[in-house]
Amino acid sequence: MTGFGVANQPLTIGGKTMASINVECRSVNGRFMDLTIRSPEEARAVEGAIRELVGKKLNRGKVEFRIHIHREQAQSASTTNVQSEVEKRFNPQALAELSAMAKIASTQISNATPLSVADILRWPGILLEEEIGATELNEAIMATVGQALDALLASRQTEGAALTQVILDRVQTMEAIVNKVEPIVPQAAKIYQEKLTEKLTALLDGIDAQGRTIGKDEIADRIRQEVVIYGTRIDVAEEIARLRTHFQAVRSALAKGGPVGKRLDFLMQELQRESNTLGSKSVTQETSDASMELKLLVEQIREQVQNLE
Question: pTM higher than 0.70 for the full model?
Fold first, then answer.
């Protein structure tokens, strides 16, 4: 089933937006589940979790996720007070502690070298951590993936509702064909038997397989027996009954909801089989035409079934 979903979410740490995460996902028809994830190296750690999440929500189709991480760039000096921004990157408490320790050291050690700017910048805790932690990043990615997946499911659900209606319309048309042809089948079979009996009786010359001469009444009786046997072979009452059962099964499967693709695949095979049998047993143009129309409709439904979950 085709569908598309997209989600975008900022990653904020300490009140500051550090990055923007964008996830796009799309799905197309497929009999089995085929998931592809395209992501930057820093998102590789969550691919297993993404596959697990998608596996809980989708059962079939070719699905692709694209994950993009855009890190926020510092604003230019023309629009931002550079000194103010730089000051925000220092830890005031750590600076005060380092300054106090430097004063104490200078009084205790007469030849102590004063700290350089480089020494201060390298001191642990002086600069506030601006790097994105793995935990925060992974959580943000999974949250965004979840939003995109929900959008994809909503898209597929909308398409599924439309496809369901198309399939139900086809089933209704098939049922109308069966309703039309069913009343004429018994009478058509009876007429065929009578014509066949008359034709065979007229052709026989009164000699059986053993060379015996037999009367016309006995000939007619034997022919009737064979024709009755043949008549049972061309009876399509069971095929029509099974067709109706399969129609109801299709409606029930669609009404139940959830993954129905494989179930409908099987039902289409059964409908095709009964439609073929109806054609092979046909003794009238009406039943032959009905069989052909049914098979065409089954193929149309089968094409739509491939789009369902």
Answer: no
For residues 147-169, b (16+ Cβ closer than 10 Å) or e, as one string?
bbbebbbebbeeebeebbeebbe
DSSP string covering 209-226: TTS-B--HHHHHHHHHHH
Whole-Å CA distances, 213 to 123, 197, 199, 218, 221: 123, 19, 19, 10, 15
The 3-state DSSP class for residue 46 equals: helix
The architecture CATH gives domain 3-74+132-156: 2-Layer Sandwich (3.30)
Structural Rg of the chain based on CA atoms: 39
* Amino acid (one-letter) located at 184: I
pLDDT in tens, 45-60: 999 999 999 998 888 7
Give the strand pairing for 61-71 and 33-38.
parallel
- Domain-wise residue ranges, the chain: 3-74+132-156, 90-122, 158-305
Query: Which ranges of 9-91 does DSSP label H, i.e. alpha helix?
Result: 47-57, 82-87
